[in-house]
Write a structure and sequence with these properties.
alpha/beta, UDP-N-acetylmuramoyl-L-alanine:D-glutamate ligase, 10-stranded mixed sheet, 4-stranded mixed sheet, 10 helices
Length: 317
């Protein structure tokens, strides 16, 4: 039995070295990358036992992904498929004004056909937390239904459900996301959402504290966490708002920062920490992740403890 079970697609990320352009790159760095597996790894690094569920093609690329996930100490409980392909994405890093560019190549992937009946639902119901993100239902109509069924099954088994809104404009429009994701809200206990997504997709207005209050009261979540970039996070729980500032960091790679935060936050809540303490640990883990290349938070609990001890401002109101 795992503390946390996550469900979603993990892709292969291909990146030219340094700030080279994709169109003339001759070499690529390759690594596994996916929101749900990133969360599982971060939670594991903070002391939780974690399992990642997915549907993966029975190909060398699919086996590469699963092998890399398992190398981080995560249990990978996958459905092997002889149909569909392995999703990939290309990351071209660049400073301003060019910026960093992401190109997805995840059409007709094996995971897009995943159905709830293909998985051992008891794995979810035996866990303490089931986690997925808004990226998963964005990938196919099948996954929209699968995500709904998995959230319902978790709730029926008494498992806490956690969900990162994780809107990706390259996958679907704000209207499509609004229609689908709000239908999932009744099955979610803990919601993590960026303030910009609450405004863009849900049409909410106000500062992050107001957004957290409105989300918590309107949709009856147990906990709402609103992320606000360089300004840190806001957490709403028991009608109280807790603010946590971001820690200073020298950013090497911002990719995966939100996943690092969410995994650490969930792990510390599972450990018994209150919301303000879990916000501290999540924010500290996110800060360390920004110093690490790649998508995965290769942190240690000792490192995170040290960052938390050195300081960061927490305010509850």
């Amino acid at each position: 039995m795992s503390d946390i079970v996550t469900f979603g697609e993990t892709m292969l990320r291909l990146s030219p070295p340094g700030n080279e352009r994709l169109e003339n790159a001759s070499d690529f760095e390759v690594m596994a990358a996916g929101a749900e597996s990133n969360v599982a790894i971060a939670a594991s690094r903070l002391g939780a036992t974690a399992t990642w569920l997915s549907k993966v093609p029975e190909t060398p690329l699919g086996r590469r992904v699963v092998g890399e996930i398992r190398s981080h100490g995560i249990e990978a409980d996958v459905v092997w498929s002889h149909r569909g392909r392995q999703g990939t994405y290309y990351l071209e890093k660049g400073g301003e004004p060019r910026g960093t560019n992401v190109i997805y190549d995840r059409e007709n992937t094996a995971v897009s056909t995943a159905e709830a009946r293909e998985f051992d639902i008891e794995r979810i119901q035996d866990a303490r937390v089931f986690f997925t993100s808004g990226i998963t239902p964005a990938l196919s109509s099948t996954l929209r239904e699968t995500t709904m069924k998995m959230l319902k099954a978790a709730r029926q088994g008494g498992t806490t459900t956690a969900f990162d809104f994780n809107y990706r404009r390259k996958l679907w429009s704000p209207d499509e996301a609004h229609e689908t994701l709000t239908k999932l809200f009744p099955g979610i206990d803990v919601l993590v959402i960026a303030a910009r997504d609450a405004r863009t997709v849900l049409g909410f207005e106000g500062d992050p504290r107001q957004l957290a209050h409105r989300l918590g009261s309107q949709y009856d979540f147990t906990t709402v966490v609103v992320t606000r970039g360089a300004d840190g996070v806001v957490g709403w729980h028991d009608s109280v708002v807790h603010e946590q500032n971001a820690y200073e960091t020298d950013t090497v790679s911002p990719i995966g920062t939100g996943d690092a935060f969410t995994g650490a936050f969930i792990a510390r809540r599972l450990h018994g920490d209150d919301v303000p303490t879990a916000l501290e640990y999540g924010t500290a883990t996110a800060a360390i992740k920004r110093t690490i290349p790649g998508d995965v938070a290769l942190v240690s609990k000792e490192e995170v403890d040290a960052v938390v001890k050195d300081g960061g401002q927490s305010i509850s109101r």
